[in-house]
Design brief:
This protein is of the alpha+beta class and 90 residues long. It has a single domain, classed as GIY-YIG endonuclease. It is built from three helices and three strands. A three-stranded antiparallel beta sheet has the order 2-1-3, with helices on both faces. β1 and β2 form a beta hairpin. It starts with 8 loop residues before the first strand and ends with a helix.
């Protein structure tokens, strides 16, 4: 996982009002969601709210988070929803 001095990274999945799923990583999920809600950050989410946090999980290091993010982003929408179900997300 991460060393005591390095921040813990999280993978998160947000659902837009239209049902699209967005996957990202951050060290502070609440701050990142507030940025998305304010229209800062990912252009893919601007004007697509309200946004619903569907999943978050501590991953560890940034490199581990980036690897998991890449895996999840490669999934089709159907497969991503199945991945979320297996992880216990609604």
């Amino acid at each position: 996982m991460s060393s005591p001095s390095s921040p813990c990274w999280y993978l998160y999945v947000v659902e837009t009002a239209g049902g699209a799923l967005y996957t990202g990583i951050t060290t502070d999920v609440a701050r990142r969601l507030a940025e998305h809600a304010a229209g800062r950050g990912a252009k893919a989410l601007r004007g697509r709210g309200p946004l619903l946090l569907r999943h978050q999980e501590a991953v560890g290091s940034r490199s581990e988070a980036l690897r998991l993010e890449a895996v999840v982003k490669r999934l089709s929408a159907t497969d991503k929803r199945a991945w979320l179900s297996r992880r216990g997300s609604p």
